[in-house]
Design brief:
Structural class: alpha+beta
Number of helices: 5
Mean pLDDT: 88
Low-confidence stretches: none
Distance between the termini: 41 Å
Shape: globular
Strand content: 5-15%
Largest sheet: 2 strands, antiparallel
Number of strands: 6
Length: about 140
């Protein structure tokens, strides 16, 4: 919801050379959203639920992937939802704090603290899926 359009477009230019495609993406970002009968401008963020939104998130958050890989973390990410797997609650707290600093500092995104959580793997629900441990397997 808070992605900076200029930073996103700068990142998109690393992957897309076609100026017409880049202009189409820019127009999409700035098209606004329908709020009742009024079109509200969108100076930041990407419209959630659109087919383009996960693609834009994947391109922009590639920087996060590289940072997590550099730090040696195991993680799962789909669009703007991700999990970082660690061994202890203390490590989870450190990672959550440092990843939040990276996202809010370097990428200038806002982390939703209500959705962010530290849980044991068997308590985790991710994109509608829950991990569980089968006894004897």
């Amino acid at each position: 919801d808070t992605i900076n359009h200029q930073k996103l477009m700068h990142r998109m230019q690393w992957y897309i050379a076609d100026k017409e495609i880049l202009q189409l993406i820019w127009n999409f970002l700035n098209a606004g959203v329908l709020d009742g009968e009024i079109i509200r401008s969108t100076p930041q963020g990407a419209q959630q639920g659109s087919p383009l939104s996960p693609l834009l998130a994947n391109v922009y958050l590639d920087q996060l992937d590289k940072e997590l890989e550099k730090r040696g973390h195991r993680f799962i990410r789909y669009a703007d939802d991700f999990i970082v797997l660690v061994q202890s609650e203390r490590a989870a707290q450190r990672v959550q704090e440092s990843v939040t600093q990276f996202l809010e500092g370097k990428l200038r995104l806002t982390v939703n603290q209500e959705k962010s959580q530290i849980v044991k793997a068997h308590q985790l629900e991710y994109l509608g899926f829950r991990l569980r441990k089968d006894k004897g397997k």
